[in-house]
Amino acid sequence: DFMQASWDIEEVQAKGIQHLASFVKDKSAFPCLLKCTEVVTRAMKTHMDSLELHVEGCTLLLEILSQALEQGVMMALDECVASCLLHTVRKHSENEEFLSSLCTLLMMVSASEVAAENLRKVGIIPDLLSILRRFLHNDKICFSCCAVLWSLAVSENNGDQAVLESAVPVTSAILQEHLQDGVVAESACSALWALSLQGCVTDSDCEPTAALLLDALRMNPERAVLVKNGCLALASLVRLSETAALAILLDSKGSGIELIKDEYHLHFDEPGVAEALCLLMNEMVQYDEVMLDMRSQKMEKLLSEIKLQFPFS
Fold first, then answer.
1. pTM for the complete prediction?
2. What range does the domain containing 139 cover?
3. pLDDT tens-digit map of 189-217
4. Considering its fold, how many domains does the chain have in total?
5. 231 vs 198: CA distance, rounded Å
6. Which distant-in-sequence residues (6+ apart) come within 8 Å of 89 by Cβ?
7. CA-wise closest residue to 196 among 160, 158, 162, 153
8. Statement to judge: residues 231 and 306 lie in one domain
9. Of 168, 200, 232, which residue constitutes the final position of a domain?
10. Are residues 250 and 161 in the same domain?
C-alpha cells in the first residue's frame, strides 16, 4: 500500500523493495511475496532511469521466483509484467553484468507457458537475439537466453516464424562458441531442437547445423540431456531435408552412425536417449540411399540391442 500510494517517488519505491527483500528468508512470508511481483515490476517500469532500483527489483524477483520453482509453484506472470521486463532489457541492453541477472530472471519467468506466451506477445525475441550477438562470449547470458528461446519456440501459438528463423544462425553461433561448455551447449541444442521442430531451419542451413550438432555430441558425450536433445534436433533436421541425413553419414570428422552407436552404449540405461536415437534412425530410413548405408553399417544389431534393453517401452 505504501508503494502504491506514491508511484512517482523513487525513494519510496526503493525503500519498499528493500523492505520486501528483508522478508525473503522468512518462509511464512512467501505467499505474500508472491503477490508483490506486479508492484515490484511497476516500480521498475515507473522509474526507468534508476539502475539501482532495477538491480534491487530484479534481485528480489529472482529470489521470489527461485522459491516458487523450488516449491513447484508456477507463476503465470501477465502481459503487463512481460512488457515491463522487455522495457528493462531495452534500457540496459549494454550493461553486461545486469543483463546476466535479468536474463536469468527471464529464463525463470518463461518456465510458465502463460508467461512465455506473454513474453512472445510483447516481442522480446529480437531483443534477446540482439543481446546474444553482443555478448556471445558470456556463458551465463547465452545459457539463459537459449532456455528462453526454447520456451518461446515450443509455444503452440507461434506467429513469429520469420523472427524465429533469424534465431537459428545466432543459436548456432552460440553452440559453436561454447562447444566445450556442456551447460551452454546443452541449452543451445535444446533451442535448436525447438527451432528445427518449428521448421525454422532453411534447407541450406540443414547440413552445417547437423554437423554442428554432431560436434556437440562428440564434445559432450557424457551429458545425457544434451545427447537426447541433440538427437531430437537432428531428427527434426532430417525430417526437413535429406541433406541433413547425408551430413550425418558423411561427416568429415567421422561416421555419424558410429557416433550414434557410441552414444547409445554410453547411455544404454537412459530410456530418453534410446528413444531419441530411435526417432533419429526412423527419420533417416525414410531415404532409400541413407537406409542402404545404415544397413551396411549393421544398424539392425543396435536396434535389436535397444529392443532387448527396453522390451516394454
1. 0.90
2. 81-200
3. 999 999 999 989 998 999 999 999 999 99
4. 3
5. 16
6. 99, 102, 106, 124, 127, 128, 131
7. 153
8. yes
9. 200
10. no
